[in-house]
Structures are given as C-alpha cells and as structure tokens.
Amino acid sequence: MQNPSAHENTDLQPQPPPEEQNYGATATHVRQGPFVSVSRNDPAKRDYLIAAVLCYANLINFMDWFIVPGILLDLQKSFELSDGDTGLLQTVFILCYMLAAPIFGYLGDRYNRKIILGAGIFFWSGVTLGSSFISELYYWIFFLSRGLVGIGTASYSTIAPTIIADLFEEGRRTTMLSIFYIFIPVGSGLGYVLAAGMADITGDWHWAFRITPCMGGLALVLLILLVPRRTQRRTAPHRALSISGTIRVAAEKPGVQRTAKTTWCQDVISLAKNWSFVWSSLGLTAMAFVTGALGMWVPLFLYRAQVVQGIVSPCLQESCNSSNSLIFGGITIGMGILGVITGAEAARRLRKINNKADPLICATSMFVSALCLYIALMVAQTNILSTFIFIAFGELFLSVNWAVVTDILLYVVTPRRQSTAIALQILVSHLLGDAGSPYLIGIISNAIQAKNAYSFQWSFWSMQYSFIVCAFVGVFGGGFFLLTSFYIEEDRKEAERL
After folding, report:
1. Is the confidence at residue 69, as pLDDT, over 70?
2. N or C end of the chain: which has fewer CB within 10 A?
C-alpha cells in the first residue's frame, strides 16, 4: 500500500499557501504585491458527474437511516418493544456509526477514498438486505444488523463531502455541498415514504428493507465506472472558500514544501484548540439531538395524538396505519430542500455584510426551531393540523443549518485535517446528540407511564412531556452557535496561514 500521507494524485506538485484571501464579498480591494493569481477553469462535466454519483449515494445513505422510524408501529408490535427498547434500536445504529467515523476519517485522509466508499456501500447494502429476512424470534440479530449498517454508512458520510470540496472551489463548492446536503432531508423523507409504502402494499414490514440494497448496487456500479480511482486532493491553494471568495497565492521559490506531515494525535490536538470548530460542533450536536428524536418519534407521537382526539383507532391489526409516516416524510423532504436552499442563499447574501453571518444564521434558526417545536407539542392534543404546521416550520429552520455548518468547518480547518475534523464532528455530534436522544425520549416516556395507570391519554402525555427536552436542547444549540461567532474570523485567518 502506498505511503498513507501521500496525496492520491501523485502528480500533484507542492503548492504555496495563500498569503491573502478575500472572504465572501466583504473586501473588494486587494493589495498589490508579488502575488500570482490562482484560478481554475469551469469544472469539467466529469466533476459534476462525480458529484451527482455522490449525491445519489447520499440519498440512499439517509433512506437507510430512516426506514426504521417509518415502520416504527409495526416493529414495536412485531418485536413487542417498549418505548425505551424502541429508542435503543436507533441508538445502536448511531453508536456504531459514530464510533466508526473517526476510523474512516483517518483512512480517508491517508488512503484511496474511492475504495473506502465502494466497500462501505457494498457492506451496508448487503447488511440491510440481510436484515429483511430476520424473523420476530431473533430481535437481537435485528438490533445487531442496524449497528452494522451504521458502520457502513459512516464510511460514506465521513469521506464523500471532502471529495466534493476537492472538485470545486469558491461559490461552486458551497453550491455543490448544499446540493449534497439537500439529499439528507430528501433521503430521510423518502426513507419514511418507502418504508410506509412497502408495508402498506405488501402487508409485511420486511419488504421495507429490500429496495435500498438494489439502489445501493446501482450506486456501487456508478462509483466504479464514473468516479476516478484517484481524485486530486487540494492543498494550500484550495481553501474551503466561502461563497464568492477569491484567493491569491504568494510567489514562492520552486521546490519548497510548506505543508508538514502531522500525526492523527497532532491533528486532534490542533482541532481541540480551534474554538470555532469546537463550538460549532456542539451546536451541531444539539441539532443532531433534536433531529434524532424528531426523526424517530414524531410519527408515533402524531399517531397517539390522533388516538386521543378520536381521529384514528388504536392499532390492533397486522399492519398499522402508516399515514403519519407518509405525511411526515413529505414534510421532511419539502422543508429539508427549502431549508438547505434558504440557508445557502442567506449565507451567500449576508456574508457580504457580516463575516460572522454563518454562525449567526445557525443560532437564529436554532432558536426559532425550538420555539416552533414547543408550540407543536402544546397544541398536539387539540389541533393536529396546527401540530403538523409547526413541526414543518421546526424542520425548515433546522434544515437551514446543514450546509452552513459544514461550510464553517471547511473554512476554519486546514484542508489536510478536514476528513479528520468531519469524523470527529460526527463522533461528538452523535455521541452527545442523536445516539442518545431517541433512547432518552423513550425511557422518559416509559418512566412517566410506569407511574400512572395505562391509558391512551397517558401514552400520549408521556411522549409529549418527553419531547419538551428537545425544545430546551435547541435553545442550547443556538447559544453554542452564538459562541462560534466570537471566534470564527480569527480561526478562519489561522486556517489560511497554515
């Protein structure tokens, strides 16, 4: 195997670091001096084709994430799971995902990324297909299979964004990352729709796990045929620029290598001193906590609210009513697309006015999302339509942050540490976020139900009271992004110097 610290493109020559960068459109005047302009022609069609393949695989990635919540009622009844045990099902998936992420981040910074991506797609698709044949008697194997799927998807989520960042620069990079992250809510929503639809059509929830493996097989073929084995890694001249950013590179004597090799431990220590990275990662953790809990429990919460209102009957049949999963899936898709586009456009415009725009956008959206979620919880028992509306707005403002948070990481962290930074961010955000939030909501619900006689009313109240935790966590997330705004300019300049 090649030297792990070598670039994937062995023909890439060492490049001098930037001496000066115009961030966004905030500075229009550039000092004259011994600079040579670094520019790149419009990306070839091949680059867009590669990005399209990566986006398609990201779609499948997140469809697999949310198949389970889409058929949660069926799984609860089939495996006879309590709320706490049901939440643990998603927690196992996220725990394995986050523990594997740093490993793949290390490998992605040092070895061939195409091979890692291909192996990951093959592995998680195969395990997902295998889980569709597990009977109700072997629920522990089903739990294990979800953990293995988490390991496979970690290989993709850690590495794919860095390839897109290497293919494009300036405004195109943020645009393509925004498109890539649009497929998070789209894939999530389609996961609900696919799972609920297949369960309705076949009357058997097992079929929900047999479609995405076929799509994964197609993604693997496209990856092999269309993505080159070696994708050029950008070093000093290719900073993770903001929208409309420009860069100028100081002329330098040929043959001088400025980028020193570092160990993984040195990378981690450096990232721990990067306060913009630390605070934005904690903000993302709050986002993950809220989205993890919402994604797992909202269809079940809406079902219980409808039962209390007398809109639907309790699920006693073989295949439960999945209309809430279908509606919530549609909301997730629509609000997710709108949120990501809105976030990217707001960032593009506001960066021209304020260099701290990114974290301020994230903070504002977290505060508004927390308020919408709280209102949705309060009106759920009396007006289900209002509940859907406020949940939709809550998802909209959460989705605003996806591309913006990633953009923050990419311009406050030097390129040679970006895969490691993404992996650590995945680890922290899931460890303290959605790895525990579905289980926490479930055990709080169990504890409340245990203190009261069983009834459909208390079944609803227990979930309602548990969900209030998410509103408060959302407020904390907004605070973390506000703290990011105090450090972001200094850390961005530091990343440019390294």
Report:
1. yes
2. N
Average pLDDT, the chain: 80
> What does the alpha-carbon distance between residue 232 and residue 53 come to, in Å, rounded to a whole number?
17
Tens digits of residue pLDDT in 407-464:
888 888 887 787 788 878 877 888 888 888 988 998 999 899 888 888 888 889 999 9
3-class secondary structure, 78: helix
Print burial letters for 422-442: b (CB count within 10 Å at least 16), e (below 16): bbbbbbbbbbbbbbbbbbbbb
How many CB atoms sit inside 10 A of residue 166's CB?
23
Output b/e per residue, 195-220; b: 16+ Cβ within 10 A: bbbbbbeeeebbbbbebbbebbbebb
Residue in the structure block whose two tokens are 């090649």: 2
Cβ proximity of 428 and 72 under 8 Å: no
Q: Is the pLDDT of residue 189 over 90?
A: no
Question: What is the average per-residue pLDDT within 179-196?
Answer: 85
Q: Select from 9, 486, 15, 12 the least CA-distant residue to 258.
A: 15
Q: Per residue in 35-48, pLDDT tens?
A: 333 344 445 788 88
Cα 304 to Cα 287: distance, rounded to the nearest angstrom: 25
Question: Residue 415 has what DSSP assignment?
Answer: G
Instruction: Provide the 10 A C-beta neighbour count for residue 136.
Output: 11
* Residue 248, strand partner residues: 20, 37
Q: What is the 3-state secondary structure (H, E, C) of 430-443?
A: HHHHHCCHHHHHHH
Tokens of 331: 């909301």
The C-alpha R_g of the chain, in whole angstroms, comes to: 23
Asked if residue 239 lies in contact with residue 166, where contact means CB atoms within 8 angstroms, the answer is no
Average pLDDT over residues 221-230: 82
User: Which parts of 338-493 are beta strand (E)?
Assistant: none
CA 494 from centroid of its chain's CA atoms: 26
Q: What is the pLDDT of residue 41?
A: 47
Q: Which residues of 255-270 are buried (b: 16+ CB within 10 A; e: fewer)?
A: eeeeeeebeeeebeeb
Tell me what pLDDT residue 495 has: 80
Query: 159 by DSSP, 3-state: which?
Result: helix
